[in-house]
């Protein structure tokens, strides 16, 4: 049985990379003890904190004729807060743009056996902005968001 987790992860990262100003993209949750090192991982080319982590929260399976796996991917976004630059608005718009990437159900990977849709709740949009808030990272105040992306994969033997 093929394992498509990495291909799905790469496809999501490619979609994120298509968004201007998206910042750094990490295909897993970064783990560091030193907050200063964590912040460095998310600085963009201008020195601004802006970046995303991609991970999977859960993956349930069912059989309806064929076997299907329902991946619940999570995109965690961070942007340094700068009141005068209206980063609160910029980050909200960026989150909306990220959600919009997944409204089209076709992956960019040729021969993909998955779609961006919620197979358990077909009327729901594939991307949901689950939380957005401000948080301190060391001495830096950042906007933070979690976007859940549903992926339904047909498991090919």
Total count of domains: 1
Classified by CATH, the class is: Alpha Beta
Kindly report the average pLDDT value.
90
CATH topology annotation: STM4215-like
Distance between the amino and carboxyl termini: 4 Å
- Taking all Cα atoms into account, the compactness measure Rg is 16 Å
Shape: elongated
Largest sheet: 6 strands, mixed
The percentage of residues in β strands lies in 35-45%
Which regions contain 5 or more consecutive residues with pLDDT less than 50? none
Work out the helicity level. 10-25%
Report the structural category.
Answer: alpha+beta
Number of helices: 3
Number of strands: 6
Going by CATH, the architecture would be: 2-Layer Sandwich
């Amino acid at each position: 049985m093929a394992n498509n987790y990495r291909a799905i992860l790469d496809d999501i990262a490619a979609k994120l990379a298509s968004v201007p100003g998206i910042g750094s993209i990490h295909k897993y949750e970064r783990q560091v003890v030193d907050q200063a090192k964590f912040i460095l991982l998310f600085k963009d080319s201008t020195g601004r904190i802006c970046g995303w982590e991609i991970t999977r929260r859960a993956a349930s399976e069912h059989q309806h004729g064929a076997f299907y796996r329902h991946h619940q991917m999570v995109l965690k976004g961070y942007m340094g807060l700068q009141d005068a630059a209206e980063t609160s608005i910029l980050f909200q718009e960026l989150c909306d743009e990220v959600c919009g990437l997944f409204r089209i159900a076709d992956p960019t990977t040729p021969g993909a056996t998955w779609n961006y849709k919620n197979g358990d709740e077909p009327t729901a949009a594939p991307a949901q902005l689950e939380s957005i808030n401000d948080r301190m990272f060391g001495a830096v105040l950042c906007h933070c968001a979690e976007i859940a992306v549903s992926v339904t994969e047909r498991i090919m033997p």
